[in-house]
Write a structure and sequence with these properties.
about 240 residues, alpha/beta, Rossmann fold, seven-stranded parallel beta sheet, 9 helices, binds NADPH dihydro-nicotinamide-adenine-dinucleotide phosphate
Amino acid sequence: MTRTALVTGGTRGIGRAISIALKEAGYRVAANYHGNEEAARRLKEEAGIAVFRFDVADFAACREAIARIEEELGPIDILVNNAGITRDATFHRMSPEQWQAVIRTNLDSLFNVTRQVIEGMRARGFGRIVNISSINGQKGQRGQTNYAAAKAGVLGFTKALALENANKGITVNAVAPGYIATDMVMAVPEPIRQKIVAEIPVGRLGEAEEVARCVLFLVADEAGWITGSTLTVNGGHYLA
Ligand code: NDP
């Protein structure tokens, strides 16, 4: 039986690696994106993965798009809530727009997207939900009160939803990556990046594929005993 997976923000960075890993493992994959048509086109051409443009911060847009995805690809059994952004600023300088953009995209999105698929998963008695949090939601980071609040919220959401659905064949877990060499991290100024790498015990940034491996592990049919957990993948950074 071929299961269908939806990966939000699935066309670039970590999400792209997750989409490709799922496709290669035999799943049917829908990759969502927001505005970067070029990256979406490339994924579609190179990996043969269906791409769907909608804003995860918009509930109505999610409802409409996910109904279309399920019509085209079948019921979504696997959801990876990966889409995320940063709008860094120290809190005393942060604008309401910076705060709201991050909370809406990184946290409200979990409601907007998951709400569309949870009833179907419960009715079918199977579901795998993986939410991408962050090391900075676990331990905080200067300049990221908005991001850390959203990513810590992801962990609370994961545990509560796991409890509600544990007896319905649905697992809900979080993956909390450390610093991964994607556009998001490469946008951090070079001197700050060097300082970050110096703090990581493994001595390098992570690769998107190293996060994708964790997701693949958690979404397997055989992973039904793992729920409400957070898998940290950070080269030992949390301990340092
Ligand atoms: P990227 O910036 O490389 O990619 C982000 C992806 O999310 C893109 O596909 C983008 O679409 C999509 N996206 C952004 N906003 C929206 C939106 N409103 N609606 C739909 N899609 C959207 O990010 P990363 O791969 O680095 O990060 C992926 C996730 O991992 C994020 O949740 C991030 O917070 C988390 N994370 C990343 C870490 C890192 O070191 N990189 C560390 C820890 C966590 P488009 O291409 O159209 O813009």
